[in-house]
Specification:
alpha/beta; Rossmann fold; Helicase, Ruva Protein, domain 3; 3 domains; five-stranded parallel sheet; 24 strands; elongated
Amino acid sequence: MNSGILIYLQLFLTVVMGLYFWNLLKSQEGQKVVMGRESRKELERLKHLRQIRLSEPLTEKTRPQSLAEVVGQPDGIKALRAALCGPHPQHVLLYGPPGVGKTAAARLVLEEAKKNSASPFKQEATMVEVDATIVRFDERGIADPLIGSVHDPIYQGAGALGIAGVPQPKPGAVSRAHGGILFLDEIGELHPVQMQKLLKVLEDRKVYLESAYYSRDNSNIPEYVHDIFENGLPADFRLVGATTRPPEDIPPALRSRCLEIFFRALSAEEVGLIAQAAAKKAEAGIEPEALEVIKRYAQNGRDAVNLVELGAGLVTVENRRTITLQDVEWIVSQGHHVMKPEVKVSPEPAVGLALGLAVLGPGMATVIDVESQVLATEHTGRGRVTVTGVIEEEQMGKTGHTYKRRSMIASSIDNVLTALASQTHVRAHDYDLHVNFPGGTPVDGPSAGLAIAVSVYSAIVEKPVLAIVGFTGEISIRGEIRAVGGVEQKLRAAEEAGLRRVIIPEANWQERYVDRNIEIVPVKHLGQAIELVFSDPHMAIASGLS
């Protein structure tokens, strides 16, 4: 009897288990049907969404389609081609203000490189673009879209492999750029941890990933996962990092691995060319007076296109065909656009006023006024020195280890006064001296030393300085005129401001300067510079002011 009960119990259990698995199978089949139906519905929805397209933005229409269409960057493009189009392409750091064509140039240069049979870039090579300001990064290593990460089994959504305890490597942008270019925009904003990882990838040309869940003895792990953990993910690419920061803000370890190329700020005329091209693409006319306003307000090519696009929209809404002066004036007023500072050089020489040349940022420079005024003092040798319009003190170093120092330009003035006393026997401390840098933007840097010296000397001896001459150079206490940076940008700023002559340190002289549209005079000592400015008849005769 007991055996009969056991038989019935076994039959009952068999039926129950059979029903369970049958219901489970039926449920899975039902889920597949539902998932299939939902998948088809979503695919139809995606297909419908892809059929909806708005008009192409003007910024895309005006994007350069060839290197010849990149306005104002012949030197930068020449250097970029030399760096990337040969048989041994290099990593590159691109410096320059926003909206001057850095990204477009990199795309076009890669396409040109692929046409060179000696280039390692093959036809399938791509440019992977990553914006360092928004790239998502998790310090725990859960996600790193730039370098790559591992999706461990404990994380949600690990799937079937995760259930089997398999860590899953997730390639990052450096691996997707394998065989091509990784364009990292605003590379100076990259997280320090990511920067160190990137440097390691540049060194190894592959990515090594780690996981506490990986074991080479785990038979559940697929062969390709073993291969990735043992040999790394390939990441042999060329880095093109773009930044609006100055070189000193970029980690030296990265700079040492890259060729540094500078894209310059666009001139007003170049901005005008871009605006004209944008108006043509927008199929709208534009008045010359309206174009002049855009040239005064647009800081770069992107600004110019945006102003034209808004103007084209305005005339379309009002059923007109031409962007007028009133349209652009309303746009810049409504958008609170700021006019670019205009450097207007006075045609008349002035006592105590010299024109210096200052770097504003990567690829940007301007002409600045340096004005000096002296007053008699009751106590010889005990005159006061007042400096305005400069950064008086700066804080340096990182958090936890900072220090303050007197600004470079304030220290430069002390050097100038000592050098003037030793080289020209002019003693500024016999007067109350006021040196001012008008314009509202605080300046800093030792390269204004020569302009300061000329301005102070002019004020003391009451001899005017020609308004067509610009100066740049650091002054040592012995009167040496030392080399400075940014000379190329400074010369261009001088030309745009209408200067006819620039005095630079002899150490900065290059033979190719002979062919410039502006006369460039190299000097070695302060006494030589003072002689040229105030005593050499050629300086006055050549200017037509004698």
